Amino acid sequence: MALKTHATVTGSSWIVIVSAGVAAGLQVWKLPPALPYLRHDLSLTLVQAGTLLGIIQLAGMLGGLAISLLAELIGERRCLSGGLVLLFLGSAGGGFAWSAGPLLVSRAVEGAGFMLVVVTGPGLIRRSTSPGRFATAMGFWGAYQGISTFAGLITGALVLQVVPWRVWWWAMAVFALAPLPWVLARVPRDDAGGARGVAAALTRIGRTVRAPGPWTAGLVFACYTLQWMAVVGFLPTIYRDSGMAGI
CA triplet 129, 137, 30: central angle to 5 degrees? Predict the structure, then answer.
């Protein structure tokens, strides 16, 4: 009976992990629909608005390898859980921001939380999903960003017509923390890591950094992301400045 329960928990855990990825992605895409309101309320410049949009990507660029090492040290499940908590704290704190500075700090906290979730998500899926469901689970994981982008832009445009942006931030904070009880209940616990795991991770990271393939792939994705994020991120602002209503 114990084995059967463990298999059930493990087999469904990928759904929880994908849900956590969607919740994390929503913290990125809650911002574009709110930018016009933030610029008006906090007197943000376009440069400050662009920094708010890009700071999470900056966190990924600077902290991805460090988070991989952290996952080897304390475990992927703990990293994902901690990421959800950081997303909650960043979004909740951002709702109290009175100027660009505190809002940037809150977005930096969200960026750290976002990276903790998305870096460890695929590894957790691989560790906890049966071979027969692995392709399906990774397919859904590959769609988490698209789901969160669509949901964040559409929902934000609708919600911000009737509530202030601060309420939107606090609602997203609650949504970021919502998957945590299911992560703790359904995702298998981390195996013991330690120094041996960190040493092996450093070896793998060093081998990856020296290889030209990842750098080439990163450059290709950067060329795409620079254009796509700039257009989609500022699109609600462009519409509003052109006199187009949200609905």
Answer: 125
Count of positions (residues) in the chain: 247
Closest CA to 144 of 169, 177, 117: 117
- Per-residue pLDDT tens for 15-57? 999 999 999 999 999 999 999 899 889 998 888 888 888 888 7
Q: How far apart are CA 247 and CA 240, in angstroms?
A: 11
Closest by alpha carbon to 88, among 211, 189, 201, 181? 181
Q: Which residue has the higher pLDDT, 193 or 180?
A: 180
Q: Which two tokens stand for residue 89?
A: 């704290």
pLDDT at residue 167 greater than cutoff 80? yes
Which H, E and C letters describe 41-85, residue by residue? HHCCCHHHHHHHHHHHHHHHHHHHHHHHHHHHHHCHHHHHHHHHH
| 228, two tokens | 């796509």
φ, ψ for residue 203, nearest 5 deg: -65, -45
DSSP sequence for 181-228: HHHHHHSPPPPP--HHHHHHHHHHHHHHHH-HHHHHHHHHHHHHHHHH
How many other C-beta atoms are found inside a 10 Å radius of the C-beta of residue 145?
A: 16
The arithmetic mean of pLDDT across residues 231-237, rounded, is 76
Cβ atoms of 115 and 59 within 8 Å: the answer is yes
DSSP characters over 147-172? HHHHHHHHHHHHHTTTS-HHHHHHHH
